[in-house]
């Protein structure tokens, strides 16, 4: 009887560890519009929670009725009461709810200047480059998205008000600052940044945000593309950096969590971040095969890694680049028809199925 009990206890521990292969099983998606909160809460309650999502990054930006900076409210923003509905359903399912506000880059999109530079144009890193009436890429100005100048003496007084308030209302343990695809940095015409090292400027901004968060025991998450050298890796200018920011990987705080997004191939760059002592999450988008490969890659990294590196491979986070409402509708529609594997919804399902598969293997990777 004792022998059977010991076998049972050993098996329970073994399987329990197997179920925790990945610390992060996440989804990154735009926060719902004010009229879509009920639909989104239901989606979390009936779909995301039950299938095992434990991390939810919501891209809020200016879609909240900020009280500290009401001038930066978007049109028809989420109210505090609506955010608390999201917080409640996340707590119900033990989901780590993380708000995102894009800092540094992504201060414009196509023909639209986003709220920060609209209200505070003096923060613009490249005020000499004007937003066109009709946006096209590529263009002579190299304009993808505007950046704020991280060396402007007043910019952090404003953006940290947003950060602090959104973390508070979300009751969050972490904050996602975006910081991807920053093409305008250390501009030669900026009176503060000209002639300075882009890697140092990028790293200093990451660390400034990280250390601000650490005062209240919060953790910074960012996208990882600016920390990968595009030339030596052959990855290119979108998923890696061609504007000399990659050396910042050796300069940023080790507490920063890297969301390593790659959408065309399961590139092995999570190993780069782990080797640098950084926690890393692999992030797919709409190719189901890529998501499956990323899950298997992260799993193999964990089972083959040293104890020192193993802890850095946190898991997976699917990214959605449509509205929350559009994603939910498409996600439900795919239940009733043949699934196109090259869609956000199919990729998300494939990622979760692959995670379930590796967890069912019963490998003790902890």
Short description:
With 366 residues, the protein is an alpha/beta fold. 39% of the residues lie in helices and 14% in strands. The protein has helices at 2-18, 37-51, 80-92, 115-119, 155-170, 198-214, 230-233, 270-275, 288-304, 307-310, 324-333, 344-360, and strands spanning 24-30, 55-59, 96-103, 108-109, 112-113, 174-178, 219-223, 257-261, 279-283, 313-319.
What is the β-strand count?
Answer: 10
- What is the rounded Rg? 21 Å
**What would CATH call the class of the domain at 26-261?**
Alpha Beta
SSE string: HEHEHEEEHHEHEHEHEHHEHH
Strand order of the largest sheet: 1-2-3-6-7-8-9-10
Based on secondary structure, the structural category is alpha/beta
As a percent range, the share of helical residues equals: 25-40%
How large is the share of residues in beta strands?
A: 5-15%
Q: Indicate the CATH architecture of the domain at 26-261.
A: Alpha-Beta Barrel
Mean of all residue-level pLDDT scores: 93
**Largest sheet descriptor:** 8 strands, parallel, barrel
Number of helices: 12
N→C terminal distance: 29 Å
Gross morphology: globular
Question: What name does the CATH topology of the domain at 26-261 carry?
Answer: TIM Barrel
CATH superfamily of the domain at 26-261: Glycosidases
Low-confidence stretches: 1-18
Protein name: beta-N-acetylhexosaminidase
Organism: Arenibacter troitsensis
Domain Glycoside hydrolase family 20 catalytic: 77-323
Keywords: Hydrolase, Signal
